[in-house]
Amino acid sequence: MEYMSDLFYAMTMPGLETLAFSEIRAAIPETELVKFMRGIALFRTTTSAENLLDLRTTEDVFANLAHIKGLRRGQDALRVLHSATLNADLAGAIASWRRAHHGARPQTWRVVSQMSGTYDFRRVDAGQAVIDALRKTMPRGIRQVEDDADLEIWLWLGGGDVLIGLRLSDATMRHRPYKRDHIPASLRPTVAASMGWLSLPTAEDIVLDPLCGAGTILTERGLLAPYQQLLGGDLQEQAIKIARRNARSADVDATLKNWDARALPLEASSVTRIITNLPFGKQIGSREENEALYTALIQEFDRVMGPDGLMVSLTSEDRLWDRILQEHGWRTQKKVVFVVLGQPASIFVSGRA
Ligand SMILES: C[S@@+](CC[C@H](N)C(=O)[O-])C[C@H]1O[C@@H](n2cnc3c(N)ncnc32)[C@H](O)[C@@H]1O
């Protein structure tokens, strides 16, 4: 067990943890990886907690209270959870929370439990073991509540590994304040940011999202790093209106137009990056429609992409897109598979072969 107060962990969409850790390393170079788990990067850093809240590819960030390896399935595990919580450096974690919250004094606490894998005890009983310990160690004046607590202690049971941590982030880390309007099939901002990160951003980039929907990808790219130009468009007029509003409220300068991505009003070789979330599967079109659409799209992307351009594309039609890319002379350098709305999706990072 480890009870160090310089341990933190980031929760991500499952599959995006290594990518999120590369963002953490770039932001805070002295950070050391301790372990990857499913949807989690556990790391050690001496940075101040508030520096962890600006991460864009992470859904939530925690001060680690305990990391238990190889928890058994049986009832004795509850005693292990209880004593790990009793021994945790709660004061250190609360100090991190206060730094992350501009010195605020927490008034309330609660426990949130998440369990995957099979155990001989119930999730509520595991949560209760942690609650019982915290009732003994929580500073006076901070009271336990059912919902909306200042301090959220999350218990995460993921097979052999268990993490108990104090949540430093709040909902704004994953639900961006700029994104007030949604459209169907709109992308999670942390996924859009991950795609921006994978595009190896440079200040010279002319970035295109030809199927921009609510504009999440362009907005996140704009927030991630400097750029020369952000261009986007969509078939639906309504999507463009929403995309404009979102970009504007994030203070991102994007040029957005109503267009058909199969016939873009752009010059040949005029962009350096394409970052896009393709319509796929049941979400938007049928398989046959997707095949025809994807073929038309790659021809158009081929035309507008500059010589050393890089494309980051997301789809659940993994095999179809892989084949079409190859047939049109594109080479995929990297593929990141993750889970979105319960189904696997792949992010392709590709360039011309
Ligand atoms: C998967 S969604 C993109 C979602 C977007 N990334 C977001 O976060 O909101 C695909 C978008 O492609 C648009 N679309 C579909 N076919 C198109 C076409 N031929 N030209 C332009 N846009 C198209 C749809 O209107 C939809 O908004």
From TrEMBL:
Keyword annotations: Methyltransferase, Transferase
GO biological process, alphabetically ordered: tRNA methylation
Positions of the Ribosomal RNA large subunit methyltransferase K/L-like methyltransferase domain: 176-338
Species this chain originates from: Dictyobacter alpinus
Protein name (record): RNA methyltransferase
CDD domains in alphabetical order: AdoMet_MTases, THUMP_AdoMetMT
Record carries keyword Repressor: no
Gene Ontology MF terms: tRNA (guanine) methyltransferase activity
SUPFAM superfamilies membership: S-adenosyl-L-methionine-dependent methyltransferases (SSF53335)
InterPro entries per the UniProt record, alphabetical: RlmKL-like_Mtase, SAM-dependent_MTases_sf
Keyword Ubl conjugation on entry: no
